[in-house]
Write a structure and sequence with these properties.
The chain has 70 residues and is an alpha+beta fold. It is built from 1 helix and 2 strands.
């Protein structure tokens, strides 16, 4: 069994410079959407719920959404 593995290794080593590594991933399928949006580092809610204020010459402000009080 070791001789078969050795033969396969030699064959792969000889062909690798011409054919390269094996291709990976699904073929012909559309790319999947992201599992979820990035979370805010401050409140852990999705960044899509936040607003940003960009001010010239001053730091950008991140406004976290307010919690609804019942």
């Amino acid at each position: 069994m070791a001789s078969k593995a050795n033969w396969a290794h030699r064959l792969n080593a000889a062909l690798f410079p011409w054919i390269g590594p094996p291709p990976l991933g699904p073929y012909g399928e559309p790319e999947l959407p992201p599992a979820s949006g990035k979370a805010c580092p401050l409140c852990a809610r999705p960044m899509a719920e936040h607003t940003m204020t960009k001010r010239e010459g001053r730091p950008t402000l991140l406004h976290c959404p307010r919690e609804l009080v019942a």
